[in-house]
Design goal:
It is built from 14 helices and 14 strands. It is 40% helix and 19% strand. Bound molecules: S-adenosylmethionine (SAM). InterPro entries: SAM-dependent_MTases_sf (IPR029063).
Length: 354
């Protein structure tokens, strides 16, 4: 174990292991990357390859084609459907997804990799072929997770997200996160635009209790010091966050939020439901407010990821899109697109109702 990992491990549970003097650094913790590198302005721009389309009104579906559908479902979903002789209900599929996905965020990845590699050797020496194959699959998935989430930081992607969220004209915003899961992006937004309020909404209670509840108190978000305007490290416990376990369709709010955000929501709805999902983003926005949306990119490596991690990720309907496809949905849903581009694993859009 590296010195950094030992220090981090020692500090687990104590809030705030990083301070402003760590800004500019990055390091690998056992379960994730700490990234306090702080490019700004043009430098930050390189984390979002933006603006492929100058006029959305002349783009057509003929030109951009339809999204790629991920068809390989998890074993759990197939087993459930066989047992119940019906399609898995949507809410159940989210419950499965959240429980599976969460298990990967709480892993000590280097330790598990070492343990699983040892298992391969042990089973090999005993000629236990079935167990060798199983353990090799585990090594492959762990190695992929290590690369994608921990080394490349392509899931949380703080620098890409900051590049996408930069430059919003808001002060102490009220932020609504639809389908919030662990709430990562709203915490990043709060750090960049502090002093307001975050409302996280997810109808799966496990997201409040475990995914958000167990999100590491020691994870540092790079944001702004409202007193000085200079960079500052923020932690979850310093933020004003409320978690609502509720269906998005039953929310008690009017047009009262400065920012409405979703991350990985639109692609879970076939075309006939997408206008409804886009309406969810509009209906809670104040005049002049911003809708922020991201969806997974359609690229070979993403298709491979969802194939190899099918048992973890694929419990629900899912599409992979290009930024032009995503933008066309958002434009046709009645938004002006202010900023669009792709970050590591996702497309990102900043939009305002037309
Ligand atoms: C794919 S997840 C979002 C991706 C997230 N960033 C993650 O890491 O898992 C979508 C979330 O939306 C929630 N969700 C889906 N439909 C919902 C609805 N109608 N009301 C409230 N939450 C919903 C699901 O429970 C799930 O946690």
């Amino acid at each position: 174990m590296s010195l950094v990992e030992e220090v981090l491990r020692e500090q687990q549970g104590k809030a705030g292991p990083f301070s402003d003097k760590d800004i500019g650094t990055t390091m690998l913790a056992p379960g994730y990357r700490v990234d306090l590198r702080n490019p700004q302005g043009r430098e930050l721009d390189k984390f979002i390859k933006a603006n492929q389309v100058s006029d959305w009104s002349i783009l057509t579906w003929r030109e951009v084609g339809k999204p790629y559908q991920v068809n390989m479902m998890s074993r759990d979903r197939k087993a459930w459907e066989k047992e119940h002789q019906q399609e898995m209900p949507l809410k159940t599929s989210w419950a499965y997804f959240n429980r599976h996905f969460h298990q990967w965020f709480v892993k000590d990845v280097p330790e598990e990799l070492q343990k699983t590699r040892q298992e391969v050797k042990t089973y090999l020496s005993r000629f236990k072929v079935k167990q060798v194959v199983q353990a090799l699959g585990d090594v492959m998935r762990l190695s992929l997770w290590n690369y994608v989430h921990r080394v490349e930081d392509a899931i949380w992607d703080p620098r890409g997200k900051r590049a996408l969220f930069e430059g919003l004209d808001v002060q102490k915003p009220r932020i609504l996160f639809l389908g919030a899961a662990e709430g990562y992006e709203a915490m990043q937004l709060y750090a960049m635009y502090p002093g307001g309020e975050v409302v996280l909404v997810d109808y799966d209670e496990f997201c409040k209790t475990d995914r958000f509840g167990q999100f590491p108190e020691t994870y540092p978000f790079l944001g702004t010091n409202p007193a000085t305007g200079s960079p500052k490290v923020w932690y979850k416990h310093e933020m004003n966050i409320e978690y609502l376990v509720e269906d998005i369709r039953n929310l008690p709010f009017g047009k009262e939020f400065d920012i409405v955000i979703s991350v990985g929501l639109l692609e879970h709805f076939p075309d006939e439901y997408k206008p409804m999902v886009l309406e969810w983003h509009r209906q809670f926005l104040k005049p002049g407010g911003y809708a922020l949306m991201t969806t997974p990119r359609d690229q070979v490596r993403s298709r491979l990821f969802y194939m190899i991690m099918a048992d973890v990720m694929n419990h629900t309907y899912r599409e992979l899109m290009t930024i032009r496809q995503m933008g066309l949905y958002v434009y046709e849903g009645g938004f002006n697109i202010l900023r669009h581009g792709f970050i590591k694993a996702h497309n990102g859009i900043v939009a305002q109702p037309r």
